[in-house]
Amino acid sequence: MSELNQTLVDLNSYAFSGQQSAELPDLSTLSEDSKRELRMVGVDVDAEEQRAGTFLQFDHSTVHCKTSAKGVEVLGIRQALKKYDGLPEYFWKAMDPDKDDFTRAAAREELHGGYFIRTEKGAKVAEPVQSCLFIKGQNVGQNVHNIVVVEEDSEVHIITGCATSHDVTSALHLGISEFYIKKGGKLTFTMVHNWGEDVMVRPRTVGIVEERGVLQNNYILLKKVKSVQSYPTIHLNGEGAVARFNSVIVTPEGSHVDTGNRIVLNAPNTRGEIISRTITTGGTIVARGEIIGNDVPARGHLECKGLILGGGVIHAIPELQGRVPGVELSHEAAVGKIAQEEIEYLMARGLDEDEATSTIVRGFLNVEIMGLPQELRESIDRTIAELDAGDAM
Q: Is pTM, for the whole model, over 0.85?
């Protein structure tokens, strides 16, 4: 990654021990403020009966873990390691612990938690599984490891919210995630980030998709964060495998977000798509994307579009690697501002200037394609409405 990404992280500035919380068998005991903060990242603790499972991590402790539907198992990662003799097929198998400084740190530090979610073969899990990795303490370092296994011909939607409490400004999140999608399986994975203004975030994600498997990955970041560095890599190893990434990112002043996705087409008839929509209102976005074609026939498309509302910087870095004759890869990248004629068109139909600008911004940051639950879409709509329309000119 480029020099733009070198936001220094001093691991010694964060506490990786001493921030334990008691278990919460009954989530109704949470404060209304905590419930609201969780809803902002898609986790509704008052609607557990409408979820296939719920996992909740506070700082260094798993405080709630519940499976509510047939066809899926939700465990804390430490419980799963104990139950399944160390998860030898999955734990650190997709990810190299020596990949970089942060994977090494995650492997070295005490494992605080994370989730293990596995479907049963052939199960179509109707309701989403919800999880939240939450930081409540100032200057806490959180180290989690997540594993998702989608067995053959099964389907599941996981909504993961990552957030800090409203009074926490500084923290560090280290997160390792490994996805294993078996033959004919489908995983829809939606991640919503809502961090504090001085929070550093270093997730590392790798996925392996087998024959006819599908990964639909949605990522949403709309609030200020000091630094995010993330570059999930998905290997399509089976014939007919598909991966789609959709990202919606807003960076206010003071935010530095270096993120993107990589898809590796390793088998015939694989398809990969990366779509990102970014807006800066004063922060810096490095929007990356890479598709590598190692087999044919295979197709990949990368699309990165950004709007600068006021100040800020957007770097769009699309990369395509075709390594065999006949692979079909394409990309589009555009960074600019809202066209004045678009605003005038809507004003001619009765909207004032601010309403017209907000309408265009909502259309640009379109989350309808993500298949999100209604309450999460409403939360996102409220956040988008708060963007300063006056900066769009």
A: yes
